[in-house]
Amino acid sequence: MKNKQDIHHHHRRLSDPEPAGKKSPRFTLPDDRTAAADEDYVEITLDLHDDSVEVHSVTAAGGGAVDDPGLKILARGLEKKSSFGSSVLKRLASLTRHPPPPVKRLDRTKSAAAQALKGLKFISKAEGGAAWSEVEKRFDELASYGMLPRSLFGECIGMKGSKEFAGELFDALSRRRNISGDSIAKEQLKDFWDQIADQSFDCRLKTFFDMVDKDADGRITEDEIITLSASANRLSNIQKQADEYARLIMEELDPSNLGYIMIENLETLLLQGAVQPGGGESRNLSKMLSEKLRRTEEHVLQRLYSDGRYFVADNWQRVWVMALWIGAMAGLFAYKYVQYRNKNGFAVMGHCVCAAKGAAETLKLNMALILLPMCRNTITWLRNRTKLGAVVPFDDNINFHKVIAMAIGIGVGIHAISHLTCDFPRLLRASPEEYEKVVQYFGRDQPNSYWHYVKGFEGVTGIVMVVLMAIAFTLASPMFRRNKVHLPKPLDKLAGFNAFCMNKILKLQTWMYLAIPITIYAAERLIRAFRSSIKAVKILKVAVYPGNVLSLHMSKPQGFNYKSGQYIFVNCAAVSPFEWHPFSITSAPMEDYLSVHIRTLGDWTRQLKTVFSEPPPTGKSGLLRADFLQGENNPNFPKVLIDGPYGAPTQDYKDYDVVLLVGLGIGATPMISVVKDIVNNIKAMEEEENAVEEGEGSEPGPMLSSPMHKRKIGSGSEKHDFNTTRAYFYWVTREQGSFEWFKGVMNEVAEMDHKGVIEMHNYCTSVYEEGDARSALIAMLQSINHAKNGVDIVSGTRVKSHFAKPNWRTVYKRIALNHPNSRVGVFYCGAPPPVAELRNLACDFSHKTSTKFEFHKENF
Q1: Domain-located, residue 302
Q2: How far apart are CA 813 and CA 294, in angstroms?
Q3: Do 128 and 83 sit in the same domain of this protein?
Q4: Taking Cα atoms as reference points, which of 195, 214, 177 lies closest to residue 121?
Q5: Of 198, 279, 693, 716, which has the maximum CB count within 10 A?
Q6: Of the ranges 70-79, 148-157, 309-318, 645-654, which one carries the lowest mean pLDDT score?
Q7: C-alpha distances in Å from residue 132, one per residue of 189, 194, 594
């Protein structure tokens, strides 16, 4: 055509391809003969084939018939002009074969990207391990009239605890399929499930994009990001700052200020954010280690032998102590059994009296021993001043105390049952000739009533002793000690109310068993009263943190020396004059103050927080924040007494080249002291290195005269004691606000540890595991904010946080790969659930790798 004609191409979306030959591109050409008058248009429909183009029809723009002779001539002319058709075909082919250059994407073959491809799951293994059959079963239970409502969608597919997020997912899947309404049928649920369970990363990415893209226009705006953040996480701080973090994402992904981001931008960010720590180890070494850890098939006897050998090797200290104790009880029991076997009473009461007297003899021993594990001052002195710690498991003092209590209960049961059910009935049924043999024990007149034996002095005192012991054991149980069950008044003011009672203490040799233990225990109580009065402390600072945690900073008494990981007992007469509670010291030995962090878990701690939060008489606010410093001479605070320090397992961390510190919730307190101590030692070593570089023989300057430096170079033993070259600290907590407790310590470590001695990991279990679609938004925010500002959005520190619970096997594996032929001290403080897993992994890796893990648990 020689006339100038504007061709308007009504293109379709590339994401919706059309089969060839079904629909034809439509072009509209203005007729230049009438353009000056009324701008009439015509529609030309072309059929595109692989290598040719044909004119399908030429019609008026309004869709009417072609009555104009000129249009008929144009149509016939177009059919003959192959050059025009060829040019159009070439243009369309070039558009098809050479699309515009795509948005630059991250290389998925890289390790970080490959790891990210495993993420963005909508159903975790724990929740989504169910096959479609189980989902279908839940549908039948939840559906009403064959329709599943939107509110029950999350429960049906197994997405627990995420009702809002499940609702957003329901809406996204419905929009994609043009489903209206708030209910779906089983066939539609099956279609939804197939997409949710699809393992393709592209499919999961598209699903997540559709959740954010609520208007389905293929673009994500700032408002849509803010809307998703309210349902995608359970972190209050992020929800409060949703606007700010949404702008942060837009700034990162929309540098041109277009006001929206595309799916390619979202994919790039997700792949870039999936950097796993410690990914530098060799895959071959990791594979070899996995092979070693896989249990091989063994004969039953071989497996029992190897398990027994490993058990003795791991627990030889406990084994010899328990063997000695059990041997002593067995010897005493046998001694009394044989003694009464040769007495006249045996002819009447038989073996029952022998068993009763043997059990009574073990009671004397155990009644004496049960006090010794609670003599904390004596144990601390033996741990610190002697070498007995190498052979005696002082860390198990509380467990040994409980085991002895169980043995006392068994002994009491054997003694009482033998007398009440065997000896007394036999005495009643004895003939006069038989009773004559026991006259010296029970009197000349043979009783004919069972009550006669029970109401005697021995019977009454024995029953009283059993009742008092039952009270003592009951009040010492976890339910009462942790205030799960409240005591009646006045016992609610007496924490740890115990009864130590014995029968016939002045008879025979019983006093020989009890003299030394009672003397030591009484001396311990006198030491506590004396030491707490002369080593008075003053409250310097009080802070109330999120999660009901009270922090007390106290003056450090003169001569108060302690080690990181140890603990003290705290008493506050304003709460209860009789109660002393143990708390780990969170300050480091080189600091000039003492600090403890107390979580309000029971009546005493709750009341302690209350008395420190009450407004003082001067009218100042009683609820103090962390940055408020109270003067030493201010009498507004209640008086606090301390007793200690006492030994704990964590204090021996310096004996190991590598340490793994694990704190669960408030259990991080002893680990924080250790981390501080390591940082202080790093500072001291840097000062010493700088002093050596400045020159030898010069007068010591202020730096060399500091207490910290004197501690390092003052004695060879002090310097030799610090052997730790690497520390791994894992802090697992449920609440985001918990990270406020030790925020300053985290930042200080990140700033001062230039050599990377301490590797810190914060885990927030209220966020879904990494890779879960519900935590994808937080992961994006975390990656952007940490890269831009160097601050983690979850913890508010420079330490990057992880989500959900740690994979402890992976943690042990990394340490074993990084530190072959090393001794690793594993120190744990917190709730009991992870203890078994951590201890078993330590044994497993110690047996099958060259790295030896030694597990220690805090016991109060």
Answers
A1: no
A2: 13
A3: no
A4: 195
A5: 198
A6: 70-79
A7: 10, 9, 58
- Category of 543 on φ-ψ map: left (φ > 0), alpha (ψ -120 to 50) or beta: beta
Report the C-alpha gap between 541 and 629 in whole angstroms: 5
Task: Please provide the DSSP assignment of 104-173 as one string.
Answer: P---TTSHHHHHHTT--BSS-HHHH-S-HHHHHHHHHHH-BTTBEEGGGHHHHHT-TT-HHHHHHHHHHH
- For residue 111, pLDDT beyond 50: no
Residue 206 or residue 857, greater confidence: 857
* Partner residues linked to 583 by β-bridges: 568
CATH code of the domain in which 131 resides: 1.10.238.10
Judge whether 567 and 595 are in contact, CB under 8 Å.
no
**At 287, which amino acid appears?**
K
The answer to the question of residue 3 being in a domain is no
Find all residues with CB under 8 Å of 249, minimum gap 6, and list them: 222, 225, 261, 269, 780, 781, 784
CA distance 47 to 27: 11
Count other Cβ atoms within 10 Å, centred on residue 24: 18
- One-letter amino acid for residue 229 of the chain: S
Residue after which a domain boundary falls, among 196, 223, 245: 196
Residue 589 belongs to domain spanning: 535-647
Domain co-membership, 569 together with 623: yes
- Assess whether 634 and 660 both reside in one domain: no
Domain count, the chain: 5
* Range with the poorest average pLDDT among 124-128, 257-261, 781-785: 124-128
The length of the chain in residues reads 860
469 in a domain, yes or no?
Answer: no
Question: Could you give phi then psi for residue 598, rounded to 5 degrees?
Answer: -120, 120
pTM for the model stands at: 0.69
CA–CA dist 374, 400 (Å, integer): 10
- Whether 448 and 369 share a structural domain: yes
Q: 103-112, 232-241, 770-779: which has the highest mean pLDDT?
A: 770-779
Q: Is the peptide bond before 577 cis (omega within 30 degrees of 0)?
A: no
**What pairs with residue 553 in β-bridges?**
541, 595
Q: Flag whether 462 is in a domain.
A: no
The CATH number of residue 636's host domain is: 2.40.30.10
